[in-house]
Amino acid sequence: MTPMSVRVGHGAATHAGLRGRANEDSYLADAPVFVVADGMGGHEAGARASAAAVAEFQPLVGIARVTNQDVRAAIERARSNIDALATGQRAAGTTLTGVVLTRVGDAGYWLALNIGDSRTYRWARGRLEQISVDHSVVQELVDSGQMDAETAARHSRRNEITRALGAGSVGQADFWMLPAESGDRILVCSDGLSTELDDERIARILDEETEPQDAAQRLVHEALLHGGRDNVTVIVVDALGDGGDDVYDTVPSVQSDDADIDTRPRAAAAGGST
């Protein structure tokens, strides 16, 4: 199918989880930017780090042709701001993942980005595809053939990440350019979703819920039903068809002060690889 200029609709939801700690997730869902950040560091440091990351993407809201250079510059500004938050021996840090809808000529594209273990998926033509690749200890073991995916999902080090913004990491973000096609549904989430629901369950919900806000709220709800051990944040973005202008759907204000801080940098090599 030929990529095209697209209109988008979206929904978003977040919850602190069921462990009674602060919500260190932040998100921005305002076309053409849809990103989630999962902070770490404790003592409010993670919340400040994730908020600092998404804040640098706010100036891109409403811009029709965001470039890769614009996104890279926002990430580097976020890294500098987060590094400045460091206090004592434990540095603040955050993951960052999502998509920016942009154009190449008259065609619409998803510019996907990721650093850490939050995830970006695409649901299209009845198939769920994970676009991002986790920057985590267990993913490295899977990639090297030392562990299978099923074991990795249960491994005690599954929440240790190898790249982040801040937290002493110098690892770089990954980027992908994907044609935006009518019927695409993009899911951006913190690991509070992907650790509670497997891909099969996520796909079923994305298939069953026609409205993106309903899908986002149901995904968060089911993550809580399956344990809710971490903060969980979800953005669902639908490519609706031809059009020069984006559709700006209402995004719920569901920020909460409770949650968990399970995501953490790998102690021995928080910088990861580039």
List the helices and strands and how they pair.
Layout: E1 6-15, E2 25-30, E3 33-40, H1 45-55, H2 68-83, E4 93-94, E5 96-104, E6 107-115, E7 119-124, E8 127-130, H3 137-143, H4 149-154, E9 160-161, E10 165-166, E11 174-179, E12 185-189, H5 191-194, H6 199-208, H7 212-225, E13 232-242, E14 264-265
Parallel strand pairs: 9-14
Antiparallel strand pairs: 1-13, 2-3, 3-4, 3-5, 4-10, 5-6, 6-11, 7-8, 7-12, 12-13
Q: From the helix content, strand content and strand pairing, which structural class follows?
A: alpha+beta
Helical content band: 10-25%
CATH fold call = Phosphatase 2c, domain 1
Low-confidence stretches: 244-274
Question: Could you tell me the radius of gyration in angstroms?
Answer: 17 Å
Classified in CATH, the superfamily is PPM-type phosphatase domain
CATH class: Alpha Beta
3D architecture notes:
The protein starts with 5 loop residues before the first strand and ends in a 9-residue tail after the last strand. The protein has one domain: PPM-type phosphatase domain (Phosphatase 2c, domain 1), CATH 3.60.40.10. α1 packs antiparallel against α2 (68-83) and α6 packs antiparallel against α7 (212-225). Residues 244-274 have low confidence and may be disordered. The chain is built from seven helices and 14 strands. With 274 residues, it is of the alpha+beta class.
